Amino acid sequence: MEEIIEFFVVVVLISASGVMAPGPLFASCISHGLNGGAKAGLKMACGHTIVEFPLVVLIGLGAFSLELVPHFREIIALLGAISLFVFAGLQVRSVLKKPITVFEGKHGPFLAGIILSALNPFFLVWWFTIGFKLISDSLLIVSFWGIVIMFLYHIWMDYAWLGFIGFISNKGRKILSNKNYKILIIGLSGVLVYFGITFVLEAKNLATV
Predict the structure, then answer these.
(1) Domain ranges of the chain
(2) What is the spatial distance between Cα 206 and Cα 146, in angstroms, rounded to a whole number?
């Protein structure tokens, strides 16, 4: 039970970087939220789930079969660490380079959630690198069902975040000002660096076993 709780904390902290990252889904959520509020954000999260869950299952099946490859876990740990460092740098660069902008979505919230997830390179690369490490770790907990547990640990954040963004957009509040958002993303980038270091140490320990 303790292991599952610890894994939950790791998944939430690492997933926050992907969930709250500036991108088309975030911008579109603000746009749709102006009129649709939290409901629009939740619809976008539903569309996002339609794309994300099959992707996670497919990656999980691949990870499950690759467990037999020699030094697989050390390689994944190192790749995960490198990915975390790169994403942390990209996130800081993205929020410091220019202000967050909003574009007007041409589709409904649900379709926007599907399209902007399936065609988002950041989303796909995140799952095939950082997410792959989380999926691989979940397999060690309760085998294939660990993937489902990991996904549930992750997906609620999408609903909470997009629903929240839609809500504050509709109400016209300035809770999430551009400055506060930049501070939040920089803080999350620091969390990514921390876990990247732990992944490197994990790979080192596995190599000595």
Answers:
(1) 2-208
(2) 21
Indicate the angle between helix axes 24-66 and 121-128, nearest 10 degrees.
30
DSSP per residue over the chain, as a string?
Answer: -HHHHHHHHHHHHHHHHHHT--SHHHHHHHHHHHHHHHHHHHHHHHHHHHHHHHHHHHHHHHHHHHTTSTTHHHHHHHHHHHHHHHHHHHHHHHHHHS-------SS-HHHHHHHHHHT-HHHHHHHHTHHHHHHHHHHHHHTBHHHHHHHHHHHHHHHHHHHHHHHHHHHT--TT-HHHHHHHHHHHHHHHHHHHHHHHHHHHHHHH-
Rounded CA-CA distance 31/208 in Å is 51
Amino acid of residue 175: I
| Model confidence pTM above 0.70 | no
Q: Please state, in angstroms and rounded to a whole number, the distance separating the CA atoms of residues 80 and 17.
A: 14
**For position 22, what pLDDT does the model report?**
64
Residue 199: predicted pLDDT: 74
Buried b (16+ CB within 10 A) or exposed e, 92-117: bebbeeeebeeeebeeebbebbbbbb
Mean pLDDT value across the chain: 78
User: pLDDT of 36-68, one tens digit each?
Assistant: 889 999 999 999 999 899 989 888 887 666 655
